[in-house]
Amino acid sequence: MRVSVRDVSYPPPSDHGAGWATAVLLGWTGLDVSPSDLAPFFGGDNPHRAAVRAVRRHGRLAYPLEDWSAILGELAAGHPVLVGIDEGDGRSPASMVAVGYDLAEGWVMTHSSQVAQERHALARLGETWVKGGAWALVVLPPGDLPATVEEDDYLEAAAGLEKDGPAWEAVIALDSALALWNDSVQALVGLGRSLFALGDRKGAEEAFAAASSLTDDPGIRRWRWAILQAGLSSTAEGGGPRGAGAARN
């Protein structure tokens, strides 16, 4: 079986491998982002965390993959995958973008910041991937689901988008979660917070009401009460929301 992901661009070569690979994935989702645009995210020691943060700040879902079968599954679905590998040279894990494979011939095709369309023996790449921390990332527009989606992993990714990304994109991602797992308290709470951040108090209260019907968590009840109080204060005084900061605690 041979798989090739379409519409993956190849920016000019760069010395910033992780930023380059992240820019490729963001570009594949439709954003016009260059490696230099992402340079401020990659000043630290952990390129993996930097990549996730950059993806979220640009309003995209950063979904980690933890096994090689998931990487192949995403490629088969047409999703390029950022993989971190350790080439044994003592440097930080290198980053490349997997864009295809052939199981019969035993290879994986990648783009890196220095080489386009490079074939690697599947077994060897798997070994260097494990040495690099067995870390991989698929990047998707909010609302799109990974082919290998798991509830806990997706909800964690959506929560990260809610925390670090634009509120509206978080709403879209959490709506997709609730379409699959409509009794997810975590998704309902995240949706409520995101709607509240957007000024939609009615939608936020409905989300927290639904969450409250599924759990006795007092923190959720405090959030709902704060939203109700914010609505009353706004109606009475023409002011903005109050009380939400206290409800986070």
Descriptive report:
There is one protein chain. The protein has 249 residues and is of the alpha+beta class. The protein folds into two domains: 2-140, Cathepsin B, Chain A, CATH 3.90.70; 167-239, Tetratricopeptide repeat domain (Serine Threonine Protein Phosphatase 5, Tetratricopeptide repeat). It is built from eleven helices and seven strands. Strands 1, 2, 3, 4, 5, 6 and 7 form a seven-stranded antiparallel sheet that branches. Helix 7 packs antiparallel against helix 8. The longest helix is centred in the last third of the chain and has 20 residues, at 218-237. The radius of gyration is 21 Å and the shape is elongated.
CATH C-level class of the largest domain: Alpha Beta
- From the helix content, strand content and strand pairing, which structural class follows? alpha+beta
Helix count? 11
Q: Report the count of strand segments.
A: 7
Tell me roughly what share of residues is in helical segments. Answer: 40-55%
Overall geometry comes to elongated
Features:
249 residues; alpha+beta; Serine Threonine Protein Phosphatase 5, Tetratricopeptide repeat; seven-stranded antiparallel β-sheet; elongated; disordered C terminus
